Each structure stands twice: as C-alpha cells, then as structure tokens.
Amino acid sequence: MKKLLLIILSLYVAVSTWGYGFASGGIYYTVTSSFSPYTVAVTRETINNHLGIVNIPHSVTNNSISYSVTSIGNACFRGFRGITSVSIPSSVTSIGDQAFDGCNSLTSVTIPSSVTSIGYGAFSGTGLTSVTIPPSVTSIREAVFEGSSLTSVTIPSSVDSIEGNAFFGTGLTSITIPSSVTYIGEGAFSGTGLTSVT
Description:
With about 200 residues, the protein is mainly beta. Helices cover about 10% and strands about 30% of the residues. It has 1 helix and 17 strands. The chain has one helix spanning about 1-15; strands spanning about 20-25, 25-35, 40-45, 50-55, 60, 65-70, 85, 95, 110, 115-120, 130, 140, 150-155, 160, 175, 185, 195. The strands form 5 sheets. Strands 1, 2, 3, 5, 6, 8 and 10 form a 7-stranded mixed beta sheet that branches. Strands 4-7-9 form a 3-stranded parallel beta sheet, with no helix packed on it. The chain starts with a helix and ends with a strand.
C-alpha cells in the first residue's frame, strides 16, 4: 500500500510540475520534463524589448532541481527589437516557430551543432547578415529568414529541403546549394539580389 501511495504521489508531483513556469536570470522557462533528466524550454524574457545581449544558459535551477535548457519556444522573443545578440548553448536541440521574428536589431547568433530543428519564420525580419546552419539540420523551414538582412548563408550537406519563402526578400547575392537538396519550395529565393547560384 505504501508503494502504491508513493507511486501515486510521484505521478501527481510530475503532472503538477509539467508545464509549470518560472523565471531565472531575466528569462521565463516552462518545464517540459518533470522526470529525470529534467528539461525546460525558454518561454520569453521577463523584460519586454530587452536591450543588448541575451545569454541563454545550459541549465537553470528552480526549487533545488537543475533543469537542462533544451529548446527555445515558439515566438518567445518575437518583436523584441532591442536584442542585438543571442548566445544559444549546446544543450538546445530546437528553435521554435517565429522565435526571433521581428528582432530587427539582432545581428549576431551562433546556432550550435546540437540544434536539429529550426522552426518556421524563426529568424524572419531580423538584422542577421550572415548565418551558418549546423550539419545537424536537415530542412530549412518555410520563411525562416524571410525579410532579414541576410547576405551570406552556409548550407550544410545534411540539408535535403529548402521550403517556400525561406530566403524571400533577403540581401543574398550568391548561394551554393549542396547536392543533398532534393526539394526547393515556391518563392524560396524570391525578392533577393541573387546573381550567382551553384
């Protein structure tokens, strides 16, 4: 009977803490796993229109539990025009849809090789001029850099698809598409300044 009560109690605690949010170091997090290994997603900043650099940590501690930061949530920094630089740790495996959409002052970001998924419109409308997509990514999602200041991009041979409007309205003048790519969506390079394509 005691074992059954302990199991029920642990399940209750796990269910009640899953999805629970808390703030640490100026950033809000949502618990995505309340079982070991404990994980969280970045939800948003606690200060709107943050000015300057955003440093996302590898892990955060709340109520004596250490959580690994494994994802950046959908639209979590959307429209934060004061952000100029973002540091993404190697613990992060996914960047959500429109995560940095409209961050027009964002000019610097390094995407670690741990990231396997970059969501729809994740960096659209940013001030990024150059980006290297890590070899862990297999698809460049729709509108991911649409309307950004991008003039240079490195696409790894792991990528097999470039979805529609991926680079629409950017400043790209040349691009090398690896032989691994078997699909390019409608409008992927519309409105760019491309003069050279390999």
